[in-house]
Write a structure and sequence with these properties.
Length: 449
Amino acid sequence: MFNKILIANRGEIALRIIRACKELNIPTVAIHSEADVNSLHVKFADEAICIGPASSSHSYLNPVRIMAAADVSGADAIHPGYGFLAENDEFADMCNSSGIKFIGPSAQMIRSMGNKSEAKRLMQEAGVPVVPGSEGVVESFEVGKKLVKDIGFPVMIKAVSGGGGRGMRIVRNMESFEMNYQMAKAEAQGAFGDPSLYIEKFIENPRHIEIQVMADQHGNAVHYGERECSIQRRHQKLIEEAPSAAVSGELRQKMGQIAVKGALDIQYEGAGTIEFLLDKDKNFYFMEMNTRIQVEHPVTEMVYDRDLLKEQIRMAAGEDIELKQKDIYPEGHAIECRINAEDWERNFMPNPGEIKTFHIPGGPGVRIDSHAYERYHIPPYYDSLIAKLITHGKDRQEAIARLHRALDEFVIEGIHTTIPFHKKLIARKEFVDGDFDTGFLERINLMEQ
Ligand code: MV4
């Protein structure tokens, strides 16, 4: 097992990693920016090192400073969390070539999955269903034009180096294809320094369903079912749940087996998430693979009664997967609400500042993952996530009832939060019925409710 883990992150996920390390008896090193001196991850870790000023690029996104901190503290592993450097192949490379285990898959794997058309090709070769479209990169506008004549409109143009919804365009007819193609290309060059595009048939109003996989270094892999992540706004997830109301036991087994096959074929290592689009007819298609632990991992932990962080760390240290697939099954239902420091009535505008009152809910089936506390100053430099509220119940109805209760008990004063948004949203009939897709939030107006 590792002797000391450096946590290359902040906020709630840094705390979550520290909690896993404490249970595994592994000492931890926190790194932090000058703006995070009073953060809980700094207080709860065994050691803390200030690595630079507030701005991310000079601290949490600075590989050289993080490596220097690992060096002086004697850490033999780095946990990147999510965001920041978690999917940076060069950072993973730098860690491993300095003899420090990057807790995640290899740099080469991160690179392959970061290239969205290569990821799609690799998964297709493993027998994972993909959306019909170009075989890899579209080499020119003329080639693209020919292709869309074959596959038919609507189509989606995507950036090979994009992902997470960045650099995508829907095109509904040939008249607007050229303009969209050229603009997508220019945007991809500007945003990612790579103009490469690929094209797919556009799936109308799909659900976003993702499968959690875990693979050890000895050729074993299992899945932990799906997470339903369709409630998103501008590609930011707001509510996630497990299981999905749209996925039957049979479909779960099918998607899970295919995801495991994909992970094994590419020789994946560690915790990963395979994202699928699920259409109206329950066809599913590979979208992207995320090579990190995700924000929404707690809903899976609740229904499978597993600690995915501890498992991820154990896998990274070379241990075997503990469980057999047949011993992994969901119990009950879990839902997560992301509580952000945002004014949902003003376009979800970020709203940093001092938390004056912080009262968290409790009772049966309630979990809070948060780095916030009373009088904590939310810095303006990073993301606006201040707490994840997760409820678990014997079924979806009980999870929702507990969510209502917990949201009512949750008191945060001094800043605007998304708590009132969640209260309204979970009261909607469509939500209660599990009847929604990725277009749901944009179709409704909660302000008039
Ligand atoms: C799509 C799609 C429809 N058809 N691809 C958005 C994020 C990225 N992972 C892929 N995305 C989409 N790709 C085809 N061929 C619709 C989306 C999409 C979406 C996907 C998941 C969750 C929310 C979404 C919101 C808008 C569009």
